[in-house]
């Protein structure tokens, strides 16, 4: 179960790392106060939910986006696997770069807590668990990568099979995965049909997937760029994660984004 929940958050975090972490990026994708809730199923069994929300908080003399992602099992799945996971990130409003990341994992008897500080001047991260690590300029944590992609990467015009590199500092090391854009299509959701960009994994020796359709994620192509549907095949079952509720989106859900 631990690996499945972690994977769900990895799927939310599509980003490339050609960015300069000192250049302000105009954010037209989200506001403080945004709230997203996703219903999670394991096959046909309701398994819990995931939430993502944004607050605005002052740190010293500066203001940051404080973003949180929470995952919780419930019902029959919760009785077998009790999951209470929390990810947090403090993100620079101008550049989209994280200042601090928190990871608090509680999955049955498995518990893990860590905090990471990003030292931009010296290109390193300082981990509460493992100390200092040198990292490339512009490195993000796994949660801030999702919000950075929304305010920058998803604004570009994609062509079929364009590859996007994802690199974060995660679980005490640099974590890299590759995904590619397949198409833009209408997706049926609780809120009606929404025009979405569909991404799948790049299949190579490091990929945990055997087929492209083993992992698919659809992001709304409406200026918000929020995930509305995720499908991950694990063994003989499929994890289904669907947008179930939202509040305070910056743009109208489903309104076409003009690049």
List keywords for this structure.
259 residues; mainly beta; YmcC-like fold; 14-stranded antiparallel beta sheet; 3 helices; 14 strands; globular; disordered N terminus
Walk me through the topology.
Layout: H1 2-12, E1 35-42, E2 45-59, E3 62-73, H2 75-80, E4 84-92, E5 98-107, E6 110-119, E7 124-127, E8 131-134, H3 142-151, E9 163-170, E10 173-189, E11 192-201, E12 215-220, E13 227-234, E14 237-247
Antiparallel strand pairs: 1-2, 1-14, 2-3, 3-4, 4-5, 5-6, 6-7, 7-8, 9-10, 10-11, 11-12, 12-13, 13-14
Provide structural commentary:
The chain is mainly β and 259 residues long. The protein has one domain (2-246): YmcC-like fold. 10% of the residues lie in helices and 51% in strands. The chain has helices at residues 2-12, 75-80, 142-151; strands at residues 35-42, 45-59, 62-73, 84-92, 98-107, 110-119, 124-127, 131-134, 163-170, 173-189, 192-201, 215-220, 227-234, 237-247. It has a 14-stranded antiparallel sheet.
